[in-house]
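hiii, so i know i said id send this last week but things got crazy w the move. better late than never?? heres the sequnce for the chain we talked about at the cafe, plus the structure i predicted for it. fair warning i was half asleep when i ran it
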Amino acid sequence: MRVVLDTNVYISSLVFKGKAREVYDYCIETSDVFTSDFIMGELSEKLYLKFDYPKASTRNLIKSILSVVEKRKPHTKRPNICRDMDDNYILQLCESVSANYLITGDKDLLILKNFKQTEIISPVAFIANLV
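okay and structure toks below
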């Protein structure tokens, strides 16, 4: 299974734990998880600015994540279908790595349900599908 985790799933798994942490742990153990410079940059920025993580801690968290996921530079054309233009970078990665799932809490992405070969699903729905 090929999975892309949206930035909000990483944040929720680190800050709030719960279902997002279950999803993260499950995907790391059972799937090929892909990320990009865009997602890791957004994660760094939000952890530092929004959640007051120290820069050194943020760098260490990013290194830890990158030790268990595969970072890719998307090679496909970036789509232009999302209200939030940044979400198009996520969809571009999904297409580029032929992801089976994009796991996200972002309502703007969830409303799409699918993008090309990728099912777009919330962490709660993803966990429910496993049972």
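btw The chain has seven helices and six strands. thought thatd interest u
miss u guys!!
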